[in-house]
Amino acid sequence: MKIEQIVLRLIEMPLVHFFETSFGRTYVRRMVLVEVRSDGAAGWGEVTCGENPFYNEEWTESAWMILRDFVAPRVLSHEFASAAEAAGRGAHIRGHNMARGGLEAAVWDLEARLKNEPLWKTIGGGAQKEIACGVSIGIQDSIGQLLEKIETEVNAGYRRIKIKIKPGWDFDVIAAVRKRFPSILLMADANSAYTLADIDRLRRLDEFNLMMIEQPLAHDEIIDHVPLQAALKTPICLDECIRSAHHAEQAIRLKACGILNIKLGRVGGFTEARKVHDLAQKAGIPVWCGGMLEAGIGRAHNIALSSLPNFTLPGDVSASRRYWKRDIIQPEVEVTPRGTILLRDEPGFGYALDQGGIQSICLREEILS
User: What is the pTM for the complete model shown?
Assistant: First the structure.
């Protein structure tokens, strides 16, 4: 493959319902789409960072600049024997994994299309042809509102419920959820809202039989999770602090967690995600695919990633209509009544692009040659 053009598009999509975490509430998503063109074909990627540098240091505008000024010049006109080489072209750029990962994912999609095969096959997936789905529910205005939302998702067939927590919205909230739904697979995501000073508070959550507590401590903290995990019966799942296979290896070796969340953008694309997956599998650590309020392209990439064999826990990959009135792919991602998504066999990420829909919400476009 020789990348002849890269097209950046900034789109804006309002959420069906606001999504709140410990670091803020989101009503509208602004995302950068990356299209790479070669030999009459095009591959697509999606940059999954937020509008503000709160989840990590990246945000939409920084991703645009990094892609335009630093990543694209290193990729354009370069001959790739395979998409696995794409990540290396920007490896010396410090950080900015989500920007680099959006382009890397597009190159993988391009390779799959040139081979006329589904993306899941190109990345070595397909161990699971039916992806188990969970949902992530943000902090609500009341416990009653949260319970109503959980009821809706359980009735829709989702196999796991994740709720966001923070100090003051944790013990009593989870207690109310467990009282109403005593047998559902339930996990809590703290998004780095706690410190080791909260160890007794977090230990109280052991009584609720949670699948896991996700990233309770700081976004860049691995070591302090070691004594916390030792003090808890509930498995800790690490998210924000695992940005590479090296970080995953450190966390596993130190016994800082029992589960890993793999987000495609957070680790910089499919090449690194597969390395994290393989390390965890060898160590007997289960993994699952986390979400970043993706539009259809990023959602389709997550489906492909989730078909790798060690994705044994339901991820955050759910139906398009949970987030968007109109997604940017056709058909939109749907979940079966048994709470699964079926792999598609069409070339690339498996869905057609709604080109008219993309253009209608496109705020900016730049063609790089």
Answer: 0.95
